[in-house]
Design brief:
alpha/beta, two-stranded antiparallel ribbon, 14 helices, about 40% helix, binds nicotinamide-adenine-dinucleotide
Length: about 400
């Protein structure tokens, strides 16, 4: 049996040879995904010999899928992710303004992967725009299924936009739509249940990992019921379910308005540890924090449903169209996402070996161009050379 499942207590059961479905991805996905697979295989082999091995299973999405099946996200791909529980993906193209929903957003919603998990820390050897990057050590829990990302929006001038506008004006007493004739509309659902499951996961993570605080980041000063609700429900949940950790001072729950948070994290990043935030704030926040430790080329991510166990680990950057085919893309975001995947599977020794090997490369000023150009004596390596460098350090 090669399938990852859950037992009656909700714990993941990981076979020694689990099948992991993966999406190669568009653009630079074709360069970074083979790099990630060969590095993970090398680490697993080094740590577990022949006892454990990942059985990689390619599934289609994006341009590849469209060429082969006429569909951008075939049902079969979703079924495979459901069946095998854990998967990993490279970046996928989302054409702007062509009416096609983001494949990433679709996958998160269909599988109800309600947490977007982004650990952000600095690696020795990486040069960054801030003076003390070692102070940045945060884990962002971004809500993944609600907010303006729910995709409930209508184009300006459409019959639906006109109908909604009329409803708001005639039946809801709304007088503040400045240009009703030319407005597009979007709706922002944020629920108590959606907030509670996210904040619960963030608090549990903080407690399990002995981290000092969870900060609720919101714009409740402006959006009083949606983001204000997020803040209120978050505090209530934390008090109700983590009261003992809070009263014994093992866990502090605090909140911060999103714009102030972006400033504060630049000025005093050491004050923040675990972050819980709605979808759109989380999008901005995770990219800023990633930039502070070296950029999205090195920032990993995962989309997780802690209740069903389903998880898709992913490169956080896009398809990087200008880099495609040049063998210069940085594979670290996807590699570090695979490290998160191995940790999630309980294969921590292999995960640590990969992190250590990456760090050894950075310490020797060896990296792909996007990172090496900022290192005082940086050696710019191609994607393939960098992959070999990491594997050499794994096998050392
Ligand atoms: P992008 O992340 O592709 O690129 C932003 C910048 O980061 C560019 O300068 C790019 O060269 C650089 N960059 C990205 N990945 C890199 C890597 N691995 N190594 C070195 N540099 C890297 O964002 P974009 O240009 O806004 O988007 C391009 C496409 O990707 C769009 O279709 C967008 O919708 C899609 N996208 C997908 C995802 C995803 O699949 N998770 C995320 C973001 C964007």
């Amino acid at each position: 049996m090669n399938r990852i499942t859950k037992d009656a207590d909700g714990r993941l059961i990981i076979p020694d040879q689990p099948t992991i479905p993966y999406i190669t991805g568009d653009g630079v996905g074709k360069e970074i995904t083979p790099s990630m697979i060969s590095i993970v295989d090398a680490a697993v082999r080094k740590v577990y010999g022949t006892k454990k091995q990942i059985k990689w299973k390619e599934v289609l999405a994006g341009e590849n899928a469209f060429k082969q099946t006429g569909e951008w996200l075939p049902d079969e791909t979703i079924e495979k992710f459901k069946y095998y529980t854990i998967g990993i993906k490279g970046p996928l193209t989302t054409p702007i303004g062509e009416g096609m929903r983001s494949l990433n957003v679709a996958l998160r919603q269909i599988l109800d992967l309600y947490v977007c998990l982004r650990p952000i820390r600095w690696y020795l050897g990486i040069t960054t725009p801030i003076l003390a990057p070692e102070k940045v050590n945060m884990t962002v829990f971004r809500e993944n299924t609600e907010d303006i990302y729910a995709g409930i929006e209508w184009d300006a001038g459409s019959a639906e936009a006109k109908k909604l506008c009329k409803f708001l004006q005639d039946e809801m007493g709304v007088t503040s739509i400045r240009f009703p004739e030319t407005s597009a509309f979007g709706i922002k659902p944020i629920s108590r249940e959606g907030t509670e499951r996210l904040v619960r996961a963030a608090c549990q993570y903080a407690v399990d990992n002995h981290l000092p605080s969870v900060t609720l980041v919101h714009k409740g000063n402006i959006m009083k019921y949606t983001e204000g609700g997020f803040r209120r429900w978050g505090y209530e949940l934390a008090e109700r379910e983590f009261g003992e950790a809070i009263s014994s001072k093992r866990l502090v729950i605090k909140d911060c308005i999103a714009d102030a948070f972006l400033q504060n994290t630049l000025l005093c990043p050491e004050e923040y540890s675990v972050i819980a935030t709605p979808n759109l704030n989380g999008d901005y926040i995770s990219d800023q924090l990633a930039a502070m430790v070296g950029g999205i080329g090195i920032a990993p991510g995962a989309n997780i449903n802690y209740i069903t166990g389903h998880a898709i680990f992913e490169a956080t950057h896009g398809t990087a169209p200008t880099l495609v085919g040049k063998n210069i893309a940085n594979p670290c975001s996807l590699i570090l996402s695979a490290v998160m995947m191995l940790q999630y599977m309980g294969w921590s020794e292999a995960a640590s070996l990969i992190s250590r090997s990456l760090e050894l490369c950075f310490r020797d000023s060896r990296a792909t161009y996007d990172l090496a150009r900022f290192m005082p004596r940086g050696h710019s390596l191609s994607t393939i050379e960098f992959t070999h460098d990491v594997i050499e350090r794994i096998n050392h």
